[in-house]
């Protein structure tokens, strides 16, 4: 028998007054409740607006409801669901509250009215048993129309993965708290600042950025009369004085990659306090009429230096922006300089070992940025691996295997890293395949069981299907495959399972399982014992283009750094596992030292 009950009543003072005396637990017991604006389980749009939901916990539900009636933000709410269990305590309720908030944000049916400062994932006695109860609560709420998708479907969605409603790891929480303290000090004193958040793939840099933006907007818009949880992680910033410092603050979130930018805009549409207009390209920043108080730059290693842009319009805009900001068309200026010139405060999130094109800002500028942040005590390293389900240093292992391990300053040091000693990663499905068709079939099986499993590859094949939809782009052992048919949100697209994603569609994203095809652009010389590139087998024109603007010619060693970085990124997308197929026979033999065979 299910130990919990879910009671439903109207969100009105009269209904709560009648309900309160029926059970002592309504006024003196820890419970979790869900408030929403759907009438009789029917969801509807109000002038294009989203349905809204709020999740809370309280030891006195009836009294807490009376406080909600006074909140201007909750005047549209219609119904109350109270989740009661004889075994619940405060820790359980905080955990269930956070659990439901995260899943509601990821489901996408509602806009979640909660702030994100109270999201927790703390341990407590018998937590594993309660997790099963939480899943049963979810299913009952789903049958009542509160959720529209299953838990795996929600957890595989970008709305969930990129949501600001996250429980931060310890190093993420330290970074956010330190950044807030420094920012408020600078806002109060009128000082400017530059901060750097640095971390390997999977350490949650993007999560920190989105969480921080949501938190700042909540602080800016939460009135003094709002009833807040004073025990929440960042409650000190919701006290007198902080909100006033954020009055009319102008914040921009700069994302160089098109696909990731589109996904994050969808999240911002669904999140109160955030707007898709906050999500910007570097060109949007440079062309903006007004300056920004704060610019947060995700994947800052993908900002551009002066180089031939993908379009003539962007080439003209690069000159125009540089001239406006610095008085002349100074070709030494980069988009990094634009960000600094257009904002009082900047936060750069970066991993220099994920630079994948010659047009990206060069390593020496990233090194200088990191050194400056360290000198000013505004450098925040993220160390906890949030993506790969392995207790060992899988990311470091991959980078040592490909020779892309970073230096102490953060830039990759191609050729300087010693190959790794063979390691086994318990609980992580790492395999090398001898058959491309067998690897694809395994990816299909994994997608059917857990979802979000995709083939990805280096840019070692021409894009034939751009002009001939019936052709195959990638042909290996008589097996034909096609490149991604869309640049935007490819991972979630309908054809993705039968296509192959490039670096430009997967950088910044998570997969459950990644099947990585290493083409003949990356090869191995067994005599010299080193990796090398086959320039003729690399088909990303912008990936190997010399820089006529700056008079730079990129050698094969330069190209090796970019291509090795690309494969290091691809090999670190998988949460549960990574499968590898290698085209070059000598490289296959070399990598067999480090990767288990598919047997």
TrEMBL record:
It holds the Pfam family SLFN-g3_helicase. Residues 28-112 form the GIY-YIG domain. This is DUF2075 domain-containing protein. It comes from Cryobacterium zhongshanensis.
């Amino acid at each position: 028998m299910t130990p919990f009950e879910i009671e439903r009543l109207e969100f009105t003072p009269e209904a709560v007054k009648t309900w309160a005396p029926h059970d002592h637990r309504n006024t003196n017991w820890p419970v979790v409740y869900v408030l929403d604006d759907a009438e009789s389980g029917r969801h509807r749009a109000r002038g294009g607006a989203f349905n809204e939901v709020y999740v809370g916990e309280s030891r006195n539900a009836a009294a807490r409801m009376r406080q909600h009636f006074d909140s201007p933000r909750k005047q549209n709410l219609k119904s109350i669901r109270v989740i009661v269990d004889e075994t619940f305590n405060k820790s359980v309720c905080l955990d269930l509250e956070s659990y439901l908030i995260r899943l509601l944000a990821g489901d996408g049916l509602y806009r979640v009215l909660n702030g994100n400062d109270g999201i927790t994932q703390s341990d407590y006695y018998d937590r594993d048993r309660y997790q099963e109860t939480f899943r049963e609560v979810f299913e009952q709420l789903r049958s009542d129309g509160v959720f529209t998708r299953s838990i795996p479907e929600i957890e595989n969605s970008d709305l969930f993965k990129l949501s600001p409603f996250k429980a931060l790891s310890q190093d993420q929480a330290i970074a956010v708290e330190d950044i807030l303290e420094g920012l408020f000090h600078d806002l109060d004193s009128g000082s400017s600042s530059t901060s750097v958040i640095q971390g390997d793939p999977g350490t949650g840099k993007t999560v920190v950025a989105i969480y921080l933006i949501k938190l700042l907007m909540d602080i800016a818009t939460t009135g003094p009369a709002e009833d807040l949880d004073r025990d929440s992680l960042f409650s000190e910033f919701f006290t007198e004085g902080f909100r006033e410092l954020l009055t009319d603050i102008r914040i921009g979130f700069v994302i160089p990659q098109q696909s990731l930018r589109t996904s994050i805009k969808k999240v911002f549409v669904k999140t109160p306090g955030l707007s898709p207009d906050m999500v910007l390209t570097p060109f949007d920043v440079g062309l903006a009429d007004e300056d920004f108080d704060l610019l947060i730059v995700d994947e800052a290693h993908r900002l551009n230096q002066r180089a031939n842009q993908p379009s003539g319009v962007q080439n003209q805009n690069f000159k125009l922006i540089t001239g406006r900001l610095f008085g002349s068309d100074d070709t030494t200026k980069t988009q990094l300089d634009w960000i600094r010139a257009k904002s009082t405060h900047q936060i750069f999130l970066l991993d220099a070992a994920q630079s994948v094109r010659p047009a990206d800002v060069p390593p020496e500028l990233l090194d200088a940025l990191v050194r400056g942040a360290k000198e000013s005590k505004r450098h925040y390293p993220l160390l906890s691996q949030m993506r790969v389900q392995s207790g060992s240093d899988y990311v470091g292992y991959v980078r040592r295997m490909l020779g892309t391990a970073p230096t102490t300053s953060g830039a990759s040091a191609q050729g300087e890293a010693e190959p790794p000693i063979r390691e086994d990663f318990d609980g992580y499905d790492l395999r090398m395949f001898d058959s491309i068709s067998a690897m694809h079939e395994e990816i299909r099986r994994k997608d059917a069981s857990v979802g979000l499993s995709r083939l990805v590859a280096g840019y070692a094949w021409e894009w034939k299907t751009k002009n001939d939809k019936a052709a195959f782009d990638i042909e290996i052992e008589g097996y034909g495959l096609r490149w991604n048919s869309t640049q935007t949100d490819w991972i979630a697209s309908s054809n993705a399972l039968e296509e192959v994603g490039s670096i430009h569609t997967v950088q910044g994203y998570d997969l459950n399982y990644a099947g990585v095809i290493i083409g003949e652009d990356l090869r191995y010389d067994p005599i010299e014992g080193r990796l090398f590139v086959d320039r003729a087998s690399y088909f990303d024109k912008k990936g190997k283009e010399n820089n006529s603007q700056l008079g730079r010619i990129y050698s094969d060693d330069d190209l090796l750094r970019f291509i090795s970085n690309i494969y290091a990124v691809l090999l670190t997308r998988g949460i549960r596992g990574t499968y590898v197929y290698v085209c070059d026979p000598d490289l296959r033999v070399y990598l067999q030292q480090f990767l288990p065979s598919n047997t």
